[in-house]
Amino acid sequence: MSDLRDAAMSSKAWPFEEARKVLKRYEAAPPEKGYVLFETGYGPSGLPHIGTFGEVLRTTMIRRAFETISDIPTRLICFSDDMDGMRKVPGNVPNRDMLAEHLQKPLTSVPDPFGTHESFGHHNNAMLRRFLDTFGFEYEFYSATDYYKSGQFDEVLKRAAERYDAIMKVMLKSLREERQQTYSIFLPIHPETGRVLYVPMKEVNAVDHTITFDDETGREWTLPVTGGNVKLQWKPDFGARWAALGVDFEMYGKDHSTNTPIYDAICEILGQPAPEHFTYELFLDENGQKISKSSGNGISIDEWLSYASTESLSYFMFQKPKTAKRLYFDVIPKAVDEYHQQLAAYPGQSPEQRIANPVHHIHNGAVPQSTMVVPFAMLLNLASVSGAEEKDKLWGFIRRYAPEASPESNPDLDQAAGFAIRYYNDFVKPTREFRLPTEQERAAMAELAACLGDAEKALDVIARKTALAGSDDPLPTVDWHDDEFLQSIVFAVGKVHGFEPLRAWFSALYQVLLGADQGPRFGGFIALYGIDETVALIRDALEGKLAS
After folding, report:
1. Are residues 390 and 454 in the same domain?
2. Residue 289 included in any domain
3. What whole-number distance in Å separates Cα of residue 443 and Cα of residue 247?
4. pLDDT of 342-362, one tens digit each?
5. Domain that holds residue 240
6. What's the CATH code of the domain at 505?
7. Which of 455, 447, 435, 459 lies closest to 494 in space, CA to CA?
8. Final residue belonging to a domain, choices 229, 252, 284
9. Other residues' Cβ atoms within 10 Å of the Cβ of residue 1
10. One-letter-per-residue 3-state SS of 306-327
């Protein structure tokens, strides 16, 4: 453990860099509350989306990194801002007309359009918890409605009334002049309509902790700030929540970054030091648009898990959190294969390399062994050319390629085979577009087909390539099950037929034989699909059967 801790204290992996910042807060003395508190927030105005998952995952990675370098106990809170008023009806839910009748009510007072929970807020909270539980996160769920109504926020709300002018001074600097005239940090909940009111205050009483205001009809009301009668505007709510709970760390998206000084200042006015922050870049959809809960664009957690493992999604989230990334279906195969490449590399790495490896953070150091003897991208291509509708058909090819493999001993490969078929049918098959080969490509593919299974012809084309290169390298050993030998044949054919750059030859193979612009390492594909099957595929392409 000491070696791991020593390596972690100097690691440049971003979870350890952030963990060391949190540890620095308590270098003089441990926290009085007895633990370090990590928090992540959720706005349940729409269904939970994949960015929410990423926030909890990344916070968890930093929490686990902190536990590596410190013995101070930790907690992780997932806090739902479910007392926010529903400002607009989400576009991806049923019964939208019914929801429109409840605009501006707290989300936990809006009926559930799905008809399964006490309110829309309760439904979305349950969805969030189900998603987080799917990934085995260790967290505590807190509801803003519960905290406001139960009195757990009462002390900080009283303090906000007492220090109202100081908080307003911070807020007014960030507002346009017109907005300044009506702004208040307090939002009353109308005693009759139940709606969240955005109205100016006539008085904020610091002695009895009440607010006085006129509602939209001109009626005057006086309410205590405690007991769930009011909530705070969202920016003051950030800082007040940090102060009330004693939060030590919270991350949020780049769209919040300009508000960080506001959140920090309010937290400090309310008597607590501001937490450490980490600002991550936003996720974009395939069109470069920000992913939004209300519009439902991008990929949902359930959608990703329909086509790939939970670990592949965690791998995607780990990578470069401060770089904007497009999050759409085409990124899934790459994430799956890169995750397994990192798994395979882990056992042979030094302690320093291991704690920089994404899989260390995905599995909290208990890294499993990968049994993916066939890459996911290869399985997709195999599903494509074989027309497989069931993974048992893929296993027929896999066993020939790797006789020792089985669904029982290679569970991640078995799972990936099922995902590959589903992904192929939903995304690859509808967009495949085969083309006819050019004359140059036709001649090269005909020779490739002739070489496969014929040792004399295969060695001849490799010798011709070697002569062209002016090399005296020895000829390889013939092994029709060896990826490298098969790749050397494919490579030699491309060189002998004058493809420059050589990637144009591989692009031709993918476009003509697979109906795609990209594809697998072709020698490995031949070994998996089979010599006779590949020859038949090439002949079908040359006869125009695939393009037709």
Report:
1. no
2. no
3. 68
4. 999 999 999 999 999 999 999
5. 2-284
6. 1.10.10
7. 447
8. 284
9. 6
10. HHCCHHHHHHHHHCCCCCCEEC
Whether residue 315 lies inside any domain: the answer is yes
pLDDT digits (tens, 9 = 90+) for 301-317: 788 889 999 999 999 99
The tens digit of pLDDT for each residue in 109-135 reads: 999 999 999 999 999 999 888 878 878
Domain match, 61 and 190 both: yes
Dist. CA 530–CA 510, nearest whole Å: 17
Distance separating alpha carbons of residues 313 and 331, to the nearest angstrom: 10
172-216: per-residue pLDDT in tens?
A: 999 999 999 999 999 999 999 999 999 999 999 999 999 999 999
For residues 400 and 452, state if they share a domain. Answer: no
Residue 290 inside a domain? The answer is no
Alpha helices, H only, 285-425: 301-307, 310-318, 331-345, 351-356, 358-362, 376-386, 391-401, 411-423
Domain boundary residue among 431, 460, 493? 431
Does one domain contain both 62 and 106? yes
Edge-to-edge strand order for the sheet containing 74-80?
140-143, 74-80, 36-42, 249-253, 276-280
Reduced to 3 states, what is the DSSP secondary structure of residue 251? strand
Say how many domains are in the chain. 3
pLDDT of 90 > 90? The answer is: no
The reported pLDDT for the residue numbered 303 is 85
3-state helix, strand, coil in the chain (%, to 5): 50, 10, 40
Note whether 181 and 156 are same-domain residues: yes
Candidates 521, 488, 499; CA nearest to 439 is 499
Partners of 37 in the beta sheet? 75
Q: What sign does the dihedral 64-66-72-78 (CA atoms) show?
A: negative
Q: CA-CA distance, 277 to 263, in Å (whole number)? A: 11
| Cβ 525 vs Cβ 519: under 8 Å | yes
- 141 and 213 co-located in one domain: yes
The answer as to whether 291 is a domain residue is no
Q: Judge if 515 and 396 occupy the same domain.
A: no
Class of residue 389 by CB neighbours under 10 A (exposed 0-12, middle 13-18, buried 19+): exposed
**CATH number reported for the structural domain that contains residue 267 in this entry:** 3.40.50.620
- Residue 292: per-residue pLDDT: 62
Tens of pLDDT, residues 242-286 = 999 999 999 998 888 899 999 999 999 999 999 999 999 887 776
* pLDDT at residue 30 in the model: 93
Please give the backbone phi and psi of residue 459, each rounded to the nearest 5 degrees, phi first. -70, -30
Q: What is the pLDDT of residue 318?
A: 96
Question: In terms of domains, do 243 and 334 share one?
Answer: no
Token pair 């309760």 in the structure block, residue: 122
pLDDT in tens, 204-226: 999 999 999 999 999 999 999 99
The per-residue pLDDT for 281 is 87
Backbone angles phi and psi of 278, in degrees to 5? -145, 120
Which residues have a Cβ under 8 Å from the Cβ of 425 and sit 6 or more positions away? 383, 389
